[in-house]
Amino acid sequence: MEYTWPLMHNNITREDIDLLIDFLNAQPRLTQSANVRAFEKEWSEYLGVRYSVFVNSGSSANFITMAALKHCFGSGGEILVPTLTWVSDIISVIQNGFDPVFVDINPRTLGMDDKQVLARITDNTRAVFLTHVQGFNAISDRLLTGLQGKKVPLIEDVSESHGATFKNRKLGTFGLVSNFSFYFAHHLSTIEGGMVCTNDEELGDTIRMLRSHGMVREALNDETKKKFIQKYPDLTPDFIFAYPGYNMRNTEIGAVLGRNQLKRLEKNNKRRKNRDN
Fold this sequence. Notes:
The protein is an alpha/beta fold. It has helices at 14-25, 34-47, 58-73, 87-95, 114-120, 141-150, 201-211, 222-231, 252-262, 265-273, and strands at residues 51-55, 78-82, 99-103, 125-131, 154-157, 165-166, 169-170, 177-181, 194-198. The protein contains ten helices and nine strands. It is flat and about 50 Å long.
């Protein structure tokens, strides 16, 4: 007998809808504001990172991560990428002026084969962009040790593996940066949305500025703001654009939904592991 199981049922519940109706009836501010900040804080606490930046899609999370790498560490060079991933991982590398170098997967984890990753690293390698597929972990001690020894940063795409762990530590906390998607079919949904996470303050502020047109006022670090204000004293501080950025902001509606969904993320993860649901 052949069995089939859907990847995901509708993850937007009646409770979510009622919460959004109540929120909208209060005639609140709908553009990025307090709920976005609260969602970023709550997600950081859940994951175990210092900084999280809520964006309008997982693809935007991929793109803005590569853009931030370019601005912080320079353009050009190679990024190691898997042969099994979503197309935006590859496109984000190309669009930001890096060359993708494909590495085959380990059939057991569906992630990049760690031996091949370490063998493909050269002096021209800027980062390893690893994808955790379908809830699996693609990290190994050999990979982490090898990358540390070669001083090559790890970027994690955790769009399909919210809450998955390696040695009791959540995926998305091992790399320099990690990306999450909150699309309809994923463990937590904001309808469209994504998150970029890091423990690096400079990188986090760069991502935050790039999300909103490159605006300096978006940075959290006062010293970062001060640096640009002193550099451009003839400009109004609230309207200094440090980088050629983008508009990848999400909304208060998405944040309200995300905050409510986060409360039951672990319950959703358990349901995914149960074939009968």
